[in-house]
Amino acid sequence: MDPNESMVPGKLSATEVEPQSMAPPHQQHRLRSGSLGIIDISAATMANIGPAMSFFFGFGFLAITAGVASPLTIVAAGIAIAFLANTLSEFSKAQPSAGGFITFVGKSFGPTSAVTTAILAGVGYIVAMASVIAISGGFLSIILSHYLKWNVPWGILTVILTILAVMLMIRGVSVSTKVAGFFFAFEISVLFIVSIVAIIQSGGHLSLTPFEPSHITNGMSGLAAGFPLAIYLFIGWENSAALAEETNDPRRNVPKAVFASVAIMSISYIVFAYATVTGFDYNVTKLGNAAIPFISVANGTVAILAFLAYLAGMTSTLGALVAGTNSQARLIFSAGREGLLPSVIGKVHQERRTPMNAILVFVGISVLLIGGWAVAHLVGSGTMDPINFFAESSTMGTILVLLVYLLANLALPFYYKKYKPADFKMVRHGVLPILGALFIIVPLYYLAKPGQPTPYNWYPYIALVVVVLAVIYASVLSKRNPGLADRVGSIVADE
Hints:
0% strand, Amino acid/polyamine transporter I, mainly alpha, 71% helix, single chain
């Protein structure tokens, strides 16, 4: 390189760093590139899914809804998520971005859709993460009460654990991702060991009953009714896309991480579900009445395995809290950096290159939501149970997140036709995303249909209000800021 080259305006030597004052505002706040490898983002994705947490508190409802053959709903959900994984992977190959679905939808349909998606994703993920934050303290309270007879209020434990998690995330994506990955490795190992031991103990009455369609309660309608619950078990599968800016070779590694995570989680959930159903002797009523069915199965094996199962649930909630907030806060960070949301959200810690403001806003609103929900319970029906809150909050968040999934599937054909027409493949970019959109409509219908108990019957109307307000805000912002279209997706992860 010419030693005088760095003196030429706009040129930098390899050892120099561009002064922030010379860079556009949204280019000043780049995340630290090359911090993560494919194993890091794969582990973070599965930690975000939180298999122990999701399965502990979700499978009982799923079994009650779908019946003995509830594992089949997990098979169906895994197939549906695979269609969605295709959409995310194809977008990530073309334009990897910390904005994830927000960037993909915005580049396809314009700035109004980008802002709308940013709000839907932000609100949806914050509401869903509130359930994880609450259950972290709630589950620790259960463990302390069960083994030590300590009655520590779960709210206090939640605040302590959340502060520790935030401190870890602000410190750096590499260290926080590795911690989440370690938590995941522990939980998945324990769940497999317990499942295998339980299946062996049930060897005398093992059968394929859980995989026979005839044993689904109410047939196809029962499968469809349980489908949203099965889909929720996988929420977080999209984690790696938001980590693209900090990932080595994101165009290759993000798609690999997405598909690997979906495949591993599908197989894992099927094994856990089979072990649980057989552990209850195919008695769905008894299974549904158990506080945490998998823990009950673990208690029927070896005492140490039951204790490890409790620990796995704890590490799962913490791993999901760290990994989920890490990725989901980056979505609103990217939106803030590009002007879709308030710019203060789009700033990074200048030393650690982490989206500190976005993390604080994301977690802060989640905690306030938990507090507001608790106050509402005090005014109405009494104290709030964290397990019930987990189901309530996660369901509300899932509705909005599913709308984002739907938009992304509809956007993929338009994106490739608009920006990469030579690379357009009818099956990969046309048929598969349409099938993915159709799969999403099923859980959306069952989550929104009339006749559900309170508060679930309010959720469709709340979601509608959020959508309407998001569209109005997006329309106004787009008109006031004509340059917004150029900023959507302007920061590509590996450029």
